[in-house]
Amino acid sequence: MTSEQQPGSPPPRHAAARGVVEVRGLVVRRGGRAVLDGLDLEVGAGVTGLLGPSGCGKSTLMRALVGVQRTHGGDVTVLGEPAGSAGLRERVGYVTQAAAVYDDLTVAENLRFFARVLGLRRGEGTSAVDRVLGEVDLAGHRDDVVGRLSGGQRSRVSLAVALLRRPDLLVLDEPTVGLDPVLRQDLWALFHRLAAGADGEPGTAVLVSSHVMDEAERCDRLLLMREGRVIADDTPAAVKAAAGVASVEEAFLALVHDAPTEGGAA
């Protein structure tokens, strides 16, 4: 603790740069079957990709990180606190696969509503709404009713909500599914801008899941999952080099071929 930090106060934002997430022995069971069985991993700064086929446990792990998943063993620490702690509510942004916004409100009305829910004062909330509309490239749709937007635009409204508080950690569950290649490219560029930081502020640690292996090349670091286990944890270049192949998909297939098969996940 620094001399300026008061007991019980959240750690300073720069503390998020290292050891953002630590998972030790995480166990999640569903229907008597292990979805995650003794999982260990860490997530640090930058853009970390959580990649693997549908049903491998990515969404379950992400729910555990944000504290909305019942667990049956192990420890999950986020930004130095137990996952789901009250002190993390303003420091962690979470975007699910389904857009969590109100279809009968406009984009701006949604953002103003969630800004109030997050406790932002009126002037602070107005500035935050303008900022996130620019970040997700929806300024031109601020007065459009969300229910009339495309699927990709609705997903970006959810992302904008998660960015209102400038989170230290942003957890994104398959945010690019079903999007066209141009929009996918734009979103990945945004993730890296967020991770880099701006205006003297440290960047946001971004954890993004996908089952599309070509997106692995866009990450600073990869966690490859299969059947509830992490089978690789390194940079994309290192993962490919270790397998002696030219693509992450080939590396994944080589790892699957060499690894024993265990119980699956969801």
List the helices and strands and how they pair.
Elements: E1 21-30, E2 33-43, E3 47-51, H1 58-65, E4 73-78, E5 81-82, E6 92-95, H2 107-117, H3 122-135, H4 151-163, E7 169-172, H5 181-196, E8 205-210, E9 221-226, E10 229-234, H6 236-243, H7 248-258
Parallel strand pairs: 3-8, 3-9, 6-7, 7-8
Antiparallel strand pairs: 1-2, 1-4, 4-5, 9-10
Helix pairs in contact: 2-3, 3-4, 6-7
Concise account of the structure shown:
This protein has 266 residues and is an alpha/beta fold. Helices cover 30% and strands 23% of the residues.
Identify the overall geometry: globular
Topology order in helix (H) and strand (E) letters: EEEHEEEHHHEHEEEHH
Q: For the largest sheet, list the strands in their spatial order.
A: 6-7-8-3-9-10
**Rg value:** 19 Å
Question: How many helical stretches?
Answer: 7
Number of strands: 10
Structural class: alpha/beta
**Helix content, binned percent:** 25-40%
Uncertain runs: 1-18
Major β-sheet annotation: 6 strands, mixed
Distance between the termini: 39 Å
Strand content: 15-25%
Detailed description of the structure:
The protein is built from seven helices and ten strands. It is α/β, with parallel strands linked by helices and 266 residues long. The longest helix is centred in the C-terminal third of the chain and has 16 residues, at 181-196. The model is unreliable at 1-18 (pLDDT under 50).
Which terms would index this structure?
10 strands, 7 helices, six-stranded mixed β-sheet, disordered N terminus, 23% strand, 266 residues, four-stranded antiparallel β-sheet, alpha/beta, single chain
